[in-house]
Design brief:
Length: about 270
């Protein structure tokens, strides 16, 4: 592996082999997502807890201070919107590799839609992006997207999608956690896996348990957004999840970290 590729990957994956990525790219097809209406304000208090942030070039340029930034995972696919929910798999590549280099991205990311009508096109998008990015030592993180078909998040499907992403050259794969068989998803994917959170769930403990379980089963960390920044106490969530990832905190310990931070915030109010 070239020095540049190794260097970029080491900006993302920490010396302990783990990673906490914070995505705020949701607007690229969802518009002003709840609590991400002003991405700069949402992300600022959370930056200290993230190893890298994932976002589009537009939000990077307009909302992130280049002097205070974290490593960037630049989303470079898109071209669809929630206004045409049935066509979310019609993504193309929206941002050039030249632009990723100009923006000093540590990696680029794009979605593949395995099993969707445009599977073929999105898999070729990934292959072509990898061809170009490898020339410049830029890692590609593939996102195994399911669009609105959240029920697809089960082991057999996820294992298929993750393996294909790795076979086509992704250096990191972002996928969903599943309670049954997640270890098989990880075993079948020869590159590191990070877990997305999906739509916000009801309880904090549920999030801590799945992050912890996924890591025990071999994921290196998370690329988790809404369950942090849509929460009433996003900093407390970020701190607790970071402790699971980088300090091997149990879900119970993470809950204590969350509660301690939340009560500190309440005292300050
Ligand atoms: C959105 C994405 C997100 O980055 C990914 O889904 C993680 O975010 P969340 O934890 O909110 O699901 O790719 O298109």
């Amino acid at each position: 592996m070239d020095w540049g590729m190794k260097n970029r990957l080491s900006q993302l994956i920490q010396p302990d082999g783990r990673a906490m990525f914070l995505p705020i790219d949701h607007g690229y097809f969802q518009g002003p997502t709840y609590r991400l209406e002003e991405p700069g304000k949402t992300i600022e208090p959370l930056l200290p807890y993230a190893d890298a942030i994932m976002l589009t070039r537009g939000i990077l340029r307009s909302c992130i201070d280049p002097a205070k930034s974290k490593p960037i995972i630049l989303r470079v696919s898109g071209g669809t919107s929630m206004a045409r929910k049935d066509e979310l798999d019609q993504e193309g590549i929206t941002t050039s590799v030249k632009e990723a280099i100009r923006l000093n991205a540590s990696a680029v990311s794009m979605s593949i839609f395995v099993g969707a009508p445009n599977e073929h096109q999105t898999l070729l998008n990934l292959s072509n992006l990898v061809n170009e990015c490898e020339e410049y030592g830029i890692p590609v993180m593939a996102v195994t997207a399911v669009g609105t078909e959240l029920e697809k998040r089960e082991a057999r499907y996820l294992a298929l999608a993750c393996r294909i992403a790795a076979e086509l050259g992704a250096r990191v794969v972002k996928t969903y956690y599943c309670r049954e068989g997640f270890e098989k998803v990880v075993r079948g994917c020869p590159v590191p896996i990070v877990m997305a959170g999906g739509p916000k769930v009801e309880s904090e403990l549920e999030v801590f348990e799945f992050v912890h379980d996924g890591i025990q089963k071999g994921a290196i960390g998370v690329n988790l957004g809404r369950n942090i920044w849509q929460h009433d106490h996003p900093v407390a969530m970020a701190k607790a999840i970071r402790a699971i990832i980088h300090e091997d905190a149990t879900p119970k310990e993470a809950m204590s970290i969350f509660e301690e931070e939340r009560s500190k915030e309440k005292d300050e109010e």
